[in-house]
């Protein structure tokens, strides 16, 4: 009898365990598709020979092909087989971080010399933003982050998953297709003192609309008056204008005004190291002692997240920036990429104007960087896809990297067709 009872209990427990294990993931629904990756999937599935992908956020040459910079190829030749595959420190490559700080803060920055900057290698710009979001949550748990409208969609995901409350501030002005400067300044004034503000250092994604130098000075002044903390996402330094110094102007203005600030840097766009995931997070502190403490905490956050950053991309970056000849070649190549994008902006606008479009397309050349915020509606974008096999995100964002001398005329004709009755 006792044996029968034990067998029954054993079978019951196995049955319950089996039922529970089979039901653990029944409530999991498929995640919504990423809007940008979905555009690429649809493009690849389209058999049309006329198809164009202007949704991808990666540089392409004038034949529509991915590019590996010559300076990157040479750096890879130099490092091939010369080093072991040991772990980097949690803070990453010291040489890469040092060279990266020079790009953002200035070659001869006193802040670097005074060791006031806590900086670690990060998993490109996305990883740098996420590391900072977690740092913000841990050490300013009652704070919130103000994010521009619109912004790169992943910004919302990053701070959401770090459990940092989000608010938004005005940025883009749909009627002028430019900056809503008055709304932006009002939002800075009305935010609670000591709020965090996420700013795009240059080539704002997705709009391509950047404040002027004078506007940046006013923004810096208002943020300082309110005691806000500015956090810059700088994904396009050098890629926007072709000049890394010019593209860092906003940060330099804030530094001159005495702000403490944070910066996320990435080498995905300006060196074409998309898949290498090379970036840097830096936080400017009051003094060296504080910087040491902040860096130790950034490393502590990285430890359970990914432990150590990857080595190969960091070696490429430090090799290029640490060698005068390779750095000179990089500056030439990044200017070439930026100039091609700028040239395609001019060509697209000129083609639209030659077609007699009733709309103004000045914003195409007024905006800067990889993306053009065209002003087209989701319905017009759908027509471009369905009738002309042109793929982009439904907010009307055109990746100028996908525009070439071979397809710009076709693109302009299609855009004219779907917008001429607007």
Automatic annotation (TrEMBL):
Its cofactor is pyridoxal 5'-phosphate. GO terms for biological process: amino acid metabolic process. One of its GO terms (molecular function) is L-aspartate:2-oxoglutarate aminotransferase activity. Residues 50-414 form the Aminotransferase class I/classII large domain. Keywords: Aminotransferase, Pyridoxal phosphate, Transferase. InterPro entries: Aminotransferase_I/II_large, Asp_trans, NHTrfase_class1_PyrdxlP-BS, PyrdxlP-dep_Trfase, PyrdxlP-dep_Trfase_major, PyrdxlP-dep_Trfase_small. Its EC number is 2.6.1.1. It is an enzyme of class 2 (transferase). It comes from the Eukaryota. Homodimer. Belongs to the class-I pyridoxal-phosphate-dependent aminotransferase family. Important for the metabolism of amino acids and Krebs-cycle related organic acids. In plants, it is involved in nitrogen metabolism and in aspects of carbon and energy metabolism. This is Aspartate aminotransferase. It comes from Prunus avium (Cherry). The lineage of its organism: Eukaryota, Viridiplantae, Streptophyta, Embryophyta, Tracheophyta.
């Amino acid at each position: 009898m006792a044996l029968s009872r034990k067998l029954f209990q054993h079978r019951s427990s196995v049955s319950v365990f089996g039922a529970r294990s089979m039901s653990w993931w029944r409530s999991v629904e498929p995640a919504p598709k990423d809007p940008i990756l979905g555009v690429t999937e649809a493009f690849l599935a389209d058999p049309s020979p006329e198809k164009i992908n202007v949704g991808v956020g990666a540089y392409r040459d004038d034949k529509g092909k991915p590019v590996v910079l010559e300076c990157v190829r040479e750096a890879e030749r130099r490092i091939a087989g010369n080093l072991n595959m040991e772990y980097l420190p949690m803070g990453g490559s010291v040489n890469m971080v040092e060279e990266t700080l020079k790009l953002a803060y200035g070659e001869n920055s006193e802040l670097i010399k005074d060791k006031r900057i806590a900086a670690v290698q990060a998993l490109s710009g996305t990883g740098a933003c996420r590391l900072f979001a977690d740092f913000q949550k841990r050490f300013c748990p009652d704070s919130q982050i103000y994010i521009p409208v619109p912004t790169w969609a992943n910004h919302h995901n990053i701070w959401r998953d770090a459990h940092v409350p989000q608010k938004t501030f005005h940025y883009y002005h749909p009627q002028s297709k430019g900056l809503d400067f008055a709304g932006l300044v009002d939002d800075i004034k009305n935010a609670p003192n000591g709020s965090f503000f996420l700013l795009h250092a240059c080539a704002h994604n997705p709009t391509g609309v950047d404040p002027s130098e004078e506007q940046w000075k006013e923004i810096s002044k208002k943020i300082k008056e309110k005691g806000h903390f500015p956090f810059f996402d700088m994904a396009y330094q050098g890629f926007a204008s072709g000049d890394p110094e010019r593209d860092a102007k906003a940060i330099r203005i804030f530094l001159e005004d005495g702000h403490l600030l944070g910066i996320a840097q990435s080498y995905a766009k300006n060196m074409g190291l998309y898949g290498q995931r090379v970036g840097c997070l830096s936080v400017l502190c009051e003094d060296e002692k504080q910087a040491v403490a902040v860096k130790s905490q950034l490393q502590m956050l990285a430890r359970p997240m990914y432990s150590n950053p990857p080595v190969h991309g960091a070696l490429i970056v430090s090799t290029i920036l640490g060698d005068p000849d390779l750095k000179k070649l990089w500056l030439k190549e990044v200017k070439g990429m930026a100039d091609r994008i700028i040239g395609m902006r001019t060509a697209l606008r000129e083609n639209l104007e030659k077609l007699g479009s009733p709309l103004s397309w000045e914003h195409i050349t007024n905006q800067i960087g990889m993306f053009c915020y065209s002003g087209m509606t989701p319905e017009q974008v759908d027509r471009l896809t369905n009738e002309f096999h042109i793929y982009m995100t439904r907010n009307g964002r055109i990746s100028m990297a996908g525009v070439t001398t071979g397809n710009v005329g076709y693109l302009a004709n299609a855009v004219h067709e779907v917008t001429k009755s607007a």
